[in-house]
Amino acid sequence: MAQSRQRPPAELTPPGIAILSLLWRQPMHPYEMRHLIRVQEIDRVMKVTHGTLYSTVDRLAASGLIQQVETSREGRRPERTVYEITHLGRDLLLDALRNGLMRTTPDYPGLATALTFANLLDPDEVAELLERRTIAVEAQLSAMNAEMDASLKQSRFQRMNLGRVHLIETEYLIALQRAELDWLRAVVADIREGRLAWDPAGTDHVHEVRDPEDFSGEREAGDA
What we know:
2 domains; extended; 2 strands; 9 helices; Arc Repressor Mutant, subunit A
């Protein structure tokens, strides 16, 4: 089957990387992709809804990164189109994996946004809210550790002699959770013991607004 000549997307999305990685191993239809994403717990590191999966498959096909192999129907079930990865898809997948492992990209977590303006709240309230978050993170960390232990005991891991690399993303997520938990506990202690304090009614983060004309001299000096 001829390779598509459409321009590929500028950057692969996480679902796109997951789909190409599944097709790297064997051709399959979207329903099977969705099943494997659940079974292999790929949705633990990315959000892949039913709609996202099928729209991503369509975009990858339109970009020439995957292509149809066959369409079949079993009984009264809807038609299922089997896809395979193209040479272009393989090249872009490897590039995306290398970039993801090597490069850092800006991340804007909700906690960082809330912390930026936390001085609008009373310190005691912030400490209480962070303590609640601490409890939630502890529960998540406990669950992830349990899932890791359960995965290692699964028959498929023992039978296929799968190594650490097959759970390395969970190991990474656990490390992030541990780091956040340690930080949360330390910050809450600093607030409770008075080492971190502020006045919500104060002007700690209020800066004087300068007139635009004040910057003219700075621009002229920079242009000199």
